[in-house]
Amino acid sequence: MAWLRLLTIIVISCLSKVHPQLQSGLDLGSLTRELLHSAKEPAFFDWLKRVRRRIHEYPELAFQEHETGRLIMSELESLGIAYSWPVAKTGIVASVGSGVEPWFGLRADMDALPIQELVEWEHKSKKQGKMHACGHDAHVTMLLGAANLLERKRDELKGTVKLVFQPGEESYAGAYHVIKEGAVDNVHAIFGLHVTPELPTGTVSSRPGPMLAGSAGFQVIIQGKAGHAAQPHTTRDPVLAASLAILALQHLVSRETDPLEPRVVSIGFVQAGQAANVIPETVSFGGTFRSMSNEGLSYLQQRIKKVIETQAMVHRCTATIDFFEETMRSYPATVNDESMYEHAKKVGEYVVGKSNVLMMPMSMGAEDFSFYSNKMAAAFFMIGTRNETRKPNYGLHSPYLIIDEDVLPIGAAFHAAVAISYLDNHGR
């Protein structure tokens, strides 16, 4: 019967590779039930809501998250969790666990948007012209909730969880600066959540591989020679040059890109003169370009520069193009590692139920979580916040955005369960 024992060993070994849970011995069902139960306890849930509402009332823009940072550090200190500050100017990176490898990352962004909140409620933004219209207040709260849950299991963690409270996601590439400072150098893999009012509370969505586009911006100044509209031959018309350059840019997608590869170039503004009978000296315009691959983004940047400069030259003008490479760094594409995606997906099926883990279509929107996904194994998931009893439901970056706070314990438990099970599968 030696052959039967050998066959049994081989089968168990193969199953363990397919289902790390069998290898680790972790009961993921029990773990997620315990975490969700703890996060939904009235005292815990009330604490989550208080934290989220405090952050919501005092929104801060990119790299100005001073009050938000102080609140985070205060909560971490009350939990007995060590942290490093400042990271990337206003960020915080905390650690829970054994202090040894493997190290697993959980990330939440902290910054708000320059939007005036128009939702009338008790905890409306108290800062004129600033609002958490992208749900980062919920992100921070869910990660603090996960910190609380993880601290309760500190002695059971088979490694270390790094909690990354990141500044400057909105256009300022805060993730890039966190990485540049070495704050996540030893992190093997990372997980992030982003709220979405497009999905009902109690659902999550993502996809393996490319998920969100890489994105970059540009601004152009076309320099010509001004003159009267009655004598165009004495001018060098920058309006004509700019108009034809903008039209030519659209051909970069329609005639230079594989139709099966998503790319887009969009012009968002054009500014010229003020008088109808005067040809201005300069025209400025700008926009964004996006691709689901980093190679595609690089190609578009090179061709945008060439097309604009050539069109300007044809019309006897000159062009200056600024890609904001120093001030507003371009975002690479967000690409989910397939193994990490499968891991988080499996956890999500236990947290919210298999039917509530959805396949997300690719989106040309961008997120600076992409910098982490370009450095390490990463998985980024969307988590629903739509409450069907509230009509209408507004999208992200809307002054009318409402977040269903029932998402907070779900997100906290999801974060914690992904981290604990990852360490259990990869720890020694």
TrEMBL record:
<dbReference type="Pfam" id="PF01546">
    <property type="entry name" value="Peptidase_M20"/>
</dbReference>
<dbReference type="GO" id="GO:0009850">
    <property type="term" value="P:auxin metabolic process"/>
</dbReference>
<dbReference type="GO" id="GO:0005783">
    <property type="term" value="C:endoplasmic reticulum"/>
</dbReference>
<dbReference type="InterPro" id="IPR044757">
    <property type="entry name" value="ILR1-like_Hyd"/>
</dbReference>
<dbReference type="InterPro" id="IPR017439">
    <property type="entry name" value="Amidohydrolase"/>
</dbReference>
<keyword id="KW-0732">Signal</keyword>
<feature type="binding site">
    <location>
        <position position="170"/>
    </location>
    <ligand>
        <name>Mn(2+) 2</name>
    </ligand>
</feature>
<dbReference type="Pfam" id="PF07687">
    <property type="entry name" value="M20_dimer"/>
</dbReference>
<dbReference type="InterPro" id="IPR036264">
    <property type="entry name" value="Bact_exopeptidase_dim_dom"/>
</dbReference>
<feature type="signal peptide">
    <location>
        <begin position="1"/>
        <end position="20"/>
    </location>
</feature>
<keyword id="KW-0464">Manganese</keyword>
<feature type="binding site">
    <location>
        <position position="397"/>
    </location>
    <ligand>
        <name>Mn(2+) 1</name>
    </ligand>
</feature>
<dbReference type="GO" id="GO:0010179">
    <property type="term" value="F:IAA-Ala conjugate hydrolase activity"/>
</dbReference>
<dbReference type="GO" id="GO:0046872">
    <property type="term" value="F:metal ion binding"/>
</dbReference>
<feature type="domain" description="Peptidase M20 dimerisation">
    <location>
        <begin position="213"/>
        <end position="312"/>
    </location>
</feature>
<dbReference type="InterPro" id="IPR002933">
    <property type="entry name" value="Peptidase_M20"/>
</dbReference>
<dbReference type="InterPro" id="IPR011650">
    <property type="entry name" value="Peptidase_M20_dimer"/>
</dbReference>
<feature type="binding site">
    <location>
        <position position="134"/>
    </location>
    <ligand>
        <name>Mn(2+) 2</name>
    </ligand>
</feature>
<comment type="similarity">
    <text>Belongs to the peptidase M20 family.</text>
</comment>
<keyword id="KW-0479">Metal-binding</keyword>
<feature type="binding site">
    <location>
        <position position="194"/>
    </location>
    <ligand>
        <name>Mn(2+) 2</name>
    </ligand>
</feature>
<feature type="binding site">
    <location>
        <position position="136"/>
    </location>
    <ligand>
        <name>Mn(2+) 2</name>
    </ligand>
</feature>
<keyword id="KW-0378">Hydrolase</keyword>
<protein>
    <recommendedName>
        <fullName>Peptidase M20 dimerisation domain-containing protein</fullName>
    </recommendedName>
</protein>
